[in-house]
Each structure stands twice: as C-alpha cells, then as structure tokens.
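Continuing from yesterday's entry. The apo prediction looked reasonable, so today I'm repeating it with magnesium ion included to see how the binding region is handled. Same sequence as before; SMILES copied from the compound registry.
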Amino acid sequence: MAHSTTTPQPPSMHAAAPRSDDSPPQDRLLAVAAGRDVPSEVHEQVLAETPVLEIDRFNLWYGSKQALHGITMPIPNNQVTALIGPSGCGKSTLLRSVNRLNDLVQNVRITGDMRLNGDSIYDPRMDVIELRKRMGMVFQKPNPFPMSIYENVVYALRIDGESNRGVLDEVCELSLRGAALWDEVKDRLHESALGLSGGQQQRLCIARAIAAEPEVLLLDEPCSALDPIATGKVEDLIQELRGRYSVLMVTHNMQQASRTSDYTAFMYLGRLIEYGPTTDIFTKPMLRETEAYVTGRFG
Amino acid sequence: MTFDSQRPRRIRSAYSSMVAHGEPWVWLTGGSLAAAIIMITGLLGFIAFRGAMTFWPAPLELVTLRDGRKALGEVTEREQTATVSRRLVRSANFELAGTHYEWFNDAEISTTAFPDWATAIERLEGGRFHGFPVRLLHGEAVVAEGPEASWAAFQREHPTIRRRHRQAGAIDKHDRGELQRQLRAARLAVVGADLAAGRDSDRYRAAVQAEEETAARVAEESALLDEKTAALRGENEGWIYEFETASGEKQSIPLESIVQIWQPNRLSVLGKAGVYLARWAEFLADDPREANSAGGVFPAIWGTVAMTLIMALLVAPFGVLAALYLREYASRGWITSAVRIAINNLAGVPSIVYGAFGLGFFCYGVGAGIDDLFFRPALVADGQPTFGTGGLLWASLTLALLTLPVVIVATEEALAAVPNSMREGSYACGAGKWQTIRRIVLPRALPGIMTGLILAMARGAGEVAPLMLVGVKKLALELPIDGAFPFVHPEREFMHLAFLIYDVGFQSPNSQAAKPMVFTITFLLVTIIALLNVAAIWIRSRLKRRYVSQQF
Ligand SMILES: Nc1ncnc2c1ncn2[C@@H]1O[C@H](COP(=O)(O)OP(=O)(O)O)[C@@H](O)[C@H]1O
Ligand SMILES: [Mg+2]
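Holo prediction written out below.
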C-alpha cells in the first residue's frame, strides 16, 4: 500500500524509527528533533503521476547547518502541490533550491540533484539563467519591479531580448488575463506597478511569473502578506492555474492547502514526512504525526 | 502568575515613568534640533538680509559740521560708546575727497538734512558719486539748467547714450574678439606648419600666405569696426551732466559713464523698488568693473554654474560605477572594507590638497601632455599652455574627485536600501546580474543617488581653496561656454562666486565699499546652490514617485 522512499542511511538509524501504530503520535517528529533520520511516507498515487520535477535525495547546508535532509519527491505535472510544515522547516529553502536562487546565498552547499523534465538542475553544465527562464516564482511579499505594469509583466521577455511590440502586447494581455488582473488594469498598463494594491501586486507577480510559459510555477506563501479578500482572489487564481501549470506552492495555511492543492507534502525540520493526495493527507493520513499537524494539534 | 492581593505592589517611581514616557529625550532631541535650526536660519537670514539690502537705495544725508564742512552720503553705521556717538557716512567722490567713507562725531554735527535733489551715481570708473544736479551740457551748449529741467533732459537722453555705449562695447568685445581669434588661428597654423613640415615646405608657404590674407582682411574689418565704434562714441561725446558736491565743488560727469543714477530722498517706495531691481539686473547680467568691487558678476555666475554642472556630470558616473562595484560585485572581505574606509577617509582630506593634486596631476601632468600632443603651436608661438594650466575642465575634475566620496557613500547606501526581494524577483525571471542592476537596482536606487549628487553639488559649489590652484581667476571675461565655436572651452580659466567672495572681501583696496558686495555675492551663491538643489530635489521626487513609492 504505502511506498517508503528512504534516504541512504545506516540501517541502525532506519531501525531507530520504526513505524508502529501504537507509538505516540509525534514519534517520528521526536526522532527527527533528536537528529535521527526517518523514512518519508510517499503515497502511491503520487508515484503514479508523470513528474515535471523530480527531487532526488537532496541535502542542503547553510554553512555547517543542514537545512534539508535527503528530500526525495516527484512533483506531478500540471497539478498543484502544496508544501506544508511548521515555520523554519525548510519549505522556502526547498523551493529556492528548485530555481537555484540559493546560489546567491553565500556558504550554501548541496548534495543530490533535481531534474526538471529530465534535465539535471544541478548539473555543472546547466546554465542557471536559462534554467530560471523555465520556471516562474512568486514570493511571500509582493515584489513588483519599479516600472510600469506592462513592463513588469513582460520583464522576462524583455531580458530575453524580445522587442516585438505585437508579441509583448499579446503576452501581456494573456498573462494578465491568466492572473485574473486584466480587467482591473487594462486601462492603466503604463502606470507604475507600485500604485497597485497589495493583492493586485501579488497577482501581477503571478502574471509576471507565467508570462514566459514556465514549466513549473513556484509560489512561496503567496498569500501571507495579503488581506482575506485579496487572499481569496489569489486562491481562486491558483485554482484556475491548476491543470494548465505545474504549481509547487508553500503555505502555512492548512485550509489553503486543502482548498487549492491536489497533492500535499508535510515537512518537518528539513525532512519530508508524508506526501500524498491532498484529500488523503487531510482526511486519512498514513501517519498520526501528519494528522496531528493538519488538525492543528501541534505546530 | 496569579494576582496576589496580600503581596505589596511595587510602586513605579516618578522618574522611571518619566523615562518611560521619554520626556527628557523629547526635550533633548527637540532642543538640539531647535538649536541647529536657529543657527542655520540665523546665518542664512543674516546673509539674506544683508545681501538683499545692498541695492536698496538708502537715503542720502547732508551732514553739516560746526566748522562749516559738509558731506553728502548714506549713513552705513552708527556707533555708540560711553564717550562718543558717531556715524559712518559713505561720502563717495573719492577723486575729490580722497576717501570713500568718513566718520563724523555727532557732537561736531550742527545740522543734518535729506535734500530732495541729492543724487547718487554709479560711474563706470571712479566709484560712487554723490552731489546735486546743476545743468546738462552738450558740447558748449547748455541743454537744460537747474535740477528739474536738467533731470528731465537727462532722462530723455541717457537711454540712447547708454545704448550706443553698449553697442560700441559689444563690437569691441565680440567682433574684435572674433577677428583676434582668426588672426591667432592663422598665426598658429603657420607655427604648426613650421613645426610639422619645416620652412621650405608647401604647407608652410600656404600657411604664411593664408596668414597674410587673414591679416589683410582683419585689418580691413578692424578699420570698419573702428569707424563704427568711433561714430558711436563720437555721438556720445560732449554729453555732460554737471553736478555740485555738498561742499560746493563742480564736477562734470559724461553721460556715457553713468551706469546707475537715483535720487533716493525724492523716490517713493515704488521708485526705490525700480532702482533696486535695476541695480540687481546690472549685478546679475554685467561684467565686473573696478577690480570686481562694482558692476556685475555675470561671468562668475556662469562659471560657478558651468563648473558645478560639469562636476556633477563627471562625478556621477564615476561615483555610481565605483559604488556599484563595491556593493554589487566585490565579494565581502577585508579588501572591500579597506577600500570603503579609504574612501571615507578621502572625504576628510583638506580640499587644498585636492587643489595641489589637480594642479600637479591634471594641469602639469595630463594637461601638459595634451598640449604637447595637440597644442604645440600655441606653446611654441607665445609660450602659452592651452590645457597645461588651470581651466574649467581641470577645476571640474578636481572637484569631482573631491566630491567622489560623498557620491560613493550615498550611492552605496542607496544600493543597500534596494530590497533584496526585488533582486531575487529579477533573478527568478531569468535575469542576469547586470540586467538586474540596470533594470531594477539602479532605477530603484536613483533617488538615493540623486541625494548624493545634491550633497556633492552643494559641497563642490562652495569650495574655494582648490579652485584657486586649478583655474579660477580674479578676472576672466571670456566665458568658458559661449557662442564662439566650439562653444564649450574646457581649457579656459573662469570666474567663480566663492572665489569672488574671497577676492572682493579680502583683496579689495576699498574694503568698506566691498563689504555689502560680499554679502550680496554670498547671498547669490547660496541662492544658486539652493536653486540647483531644488532642481535636483524636484527630479528626485519625480523619480521617487516613479520607482520607490510602495502602497498597500
Ligand atoms: N540564508 C540563510 N542562511 C542561513 N540559514 C538560513 C538561511 N535561510 C534559511 N535558513 C535556515 O534554514 C531553515 C529553513 O528555513 P526556511 O526554508 O526559510 O523555512 P520555512 O520557509 O519553512 O519557514 C531555518 O532554520 C532557517 O533559519
Ligand atoms: Mg518560508
């Protein structure tokens, strides 16, 4: 029934965290907190999907501090995958590793690999800039660029040297429509993007991220700086993106994960604990630890 | 912890509550600000008041002493001590009295009066004149007799005469100047041909030929100009305004040499305002006269603005690029820190050291090299360096160097203030480092960079010491940017308001008369710097609105 992927580790460690139904609910989490490795429970449905992104035994260190421990997870194509877990568990780090934004941080060291549609992301021959052009990313705090709405949306094309007005106009409209922002801004495309409201700015950032037709869309807590109404709009938008884009989304909001995602991964202290279809994770998780977390009894 | 009614409660002391509320700190911080504001506004207000009042026509007081001596002039100072009270009168008429100013003890004064027809004249030469109009003469003929009639006739004639005078002056300055330039160019071509090809070359002979032709043509045109100016000056000749001084001496003043004239005791406030504006206009638009103590300061305004703007143009790219490298490219390490400390220390080097460096490096080093390569004929022909001496370019470069630390530090801070989330957003879109800097970081940092430029301009425009070494002169009527090809003359020496303050205030033979000028020039300099700053601040606020404002 369940398929356990394990990181390469000494068998003794493996034995130290046995799965047992009558163990206390936070058994594995305690083991993790004690610094021991635990296997990740990955549901079969996940493995049945075609992956767009495969994370393969990925470890990451900030200096001497390890932030990710042997993460192995496939991200299904054209589905929304949510990463949940308590603050500081490495969700953002994992996301930023996908488009190699962590390269910009000093003293970061990694082992393992990730593959985007089969291409090794951490291959030394991989051109980071080309790689990032194949992904879109939206950050926690809206970060529109200091330029017009129009230029914000077509930024990725501009830096690629695209200057054909027709192409740019079309991409701009499509992306803004895709981000459900077109009707609100179509009359002021050439005004500064900094004049938009927070929610509009975040949807603008989404439009910017999808303008270059990314293979994966990375969203890092896209709603945490927004008010409830703007949050609702962005969540609706994520719903609409489902099926058209592969989305990897970080959230600390359980309802958001259950409402908007197809798959959910629960992380704890740099480790993947359980990963499966969202409905399963929220209604009948394999681990009590996961259940404890999603029902809010801990974390 | 539960509330325990048995336990005595700790009473907060009045002191701790005051500290908590921060009142002493409000007073301390507010007080320091107030002190700073009082000092700044006090200084600026004093300069503004004294500077603005210089040209306001003060009443002319006729002082009669007990011994019968008389003097007519503006009272510029009063002094009251235990034993004497006295006043300083600007009695003018230096050529008659041998002094511009005179102290009078109140005890010696029998009467004072403000006669209606007391007249003050600003002359082309010889300084101020005070007296009473008698009659207007044209050659032998008396045009008008008596103050009223002569004043009316003067009002009629004077504008035409002044216009002719200005025309003649313009011909001398521009047309003759142009001929001189052509002549010099032809002469330099001969020397150049000699240096390059020797005396028996065709080129040399052609140059000599051309020079002869130019010389002939210039002589011809000069003769024409002579005729023109002689005609203009001839028409002005013979127009004399005869005055009587307070002590009864007659003085004939050619109408041509009267620059400003006013009768303050007769004037209404509006009339005084007219004189005031006319004197300001002269001050702003004319060349200086009489060792800079009279006339205008236009060349100095021009030089100051030109130098400041060129300096800003030079320092901005240098400073911004250096700061970009330090902040965006250089890896954080001890070398970067050392460079940063060195730059900050550079700001503390006395400015005269920059002047000496500019003179040694730019003028005598780079400039001499340029002269050697491109301007040898001028060097050989009349031993005059072109770039090998002080000039606008070298002065601007020296000040650019002087203000570089300011720009670098401000730019670095502006770059550091650009949120990292913007950089990351750009990288996430697949932008490279330079693309991110150019499209995101620089626009966003631009207002902060402008702040650095504003500070640099204010600092640079007020410097005197280094400028004295690298190109500012007491008198340089040829503007460094003018209508003569190639319009910008970076090698020319120029005048500068800040140097003028020093020159007029401390090098002038007539220091009493120069004092109000010092205030006026200072006022003007501060105003110009303020205007430049206002312009820059306006640009900055526009940039800010465009690139920085963040609304939620
Ligand atoms: N730039 C960094 N340098 C050092 N440690 C970092 C850095 N960024 C994150 N970390 C650490 O890595 C861990 C995971 O952080 P993060 O991925 O931001 O967590 P999350 O997004 O799940 O809240 C945290 O313990 C955090 O302190
Ligand atoms: Mg995070």
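Comparison notes:
- Confidence is low (pLDDT under 50) at residues 4-23 of chain A.
- Residues A 91-92, 221 surround magnesium ion (ligand 2) (CB under 6 Å).
Will overlay with the apo model tomorrow.
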